[in-house]
Amino acid sequence: MGFYGDTILPRIINVACGTALTKPQREQACAGLTGEVVEIGFGSGLNIPFYPPSVSRVMAIEPADTAWHIARKRVEQSSVPVERHGLDGQSLPLDDASCDSALSTWTLCTIPDVTAALHEVRRVLKPGGTFHFVEHGLAPDAKVQAWQHRLNPLQQKLFGGCNLDRPIAQLIEDAGFTISTIDEFYEKGSPKFLGALSLGVATRA
C-alpha cells in the first residue's frame, strides 16, 4: 500500500469518517446484524459501538496495520469479540456459507476490484444471509454526476483509490444479491459529489 496508504491515510480516514455526521448511518447499517459477521474495510473500528447484541463475533477484514492499531482500544472495549481475519476484501479467508451477516461502510468505493469483493461476500454468506451497507457513490442527479466524473481522478490520488462515481446498488445486484431495503440520499452537511449515500440491506439468494 505504501507509506501514505498504510500509515497516513488510515489516520485521516479515522478522523474524516468518525464525525457525528456518520453515526446515524453507521447505527442504521449495523441494525439487524446477527451471528457471525464479516466486516470488510473494518478500518479503525468505528462501527464497534453500533454492533447489536445479536452479533456473536466479528471477523474484521482490514489491509492497513495502522488502522488496526488505531482500532485496538475499541476492539479491547468491545462487548462483541472482534478478530482480524484477513487483509483483502477481494479474497476472504473464510469458508463458503460460513457467515450470517456481512457489513460494509464507506468501503466499496475503494476496493480495486469491487466486483470480486462483492462475489466473495456473497460466497461466505449463508443462504438468506444479509449484507448491510452504507456507501457513497454515483449521485442520482446528472449535474452532480458530471462533477463526480471530473473530480474522480483527483479523489483517487488523494484518498487511496477512493472512487466518487461507483453505482453502488447496481454493483450489489449484479453480484447476485437481492436488495430488500435501500435509502439513497445526500448526507446533510457534505458536498453532494461526496455525500451521495446508499444505505440498505441486501440478501444472498
From TrEMBL:
Q: Does the keyword Transferase apply?
A: yes
The Methyltransferase type domain is annotated at 38-132
Record keywords, A-Z:
Methyltransferase, Transferase
- Share an example GO biological-process annotation for this protein: methylation
Q: Which GO molecular-function terms appear in the entry?
A: S-adenosylmethionine-dependent methyltransferase activity
Species this protein is from: Lolliginicoccus lacisalsi
Tree of life domain: Bacteria
| Listed name of the protein | Class I SAM-dependent methyltransferase
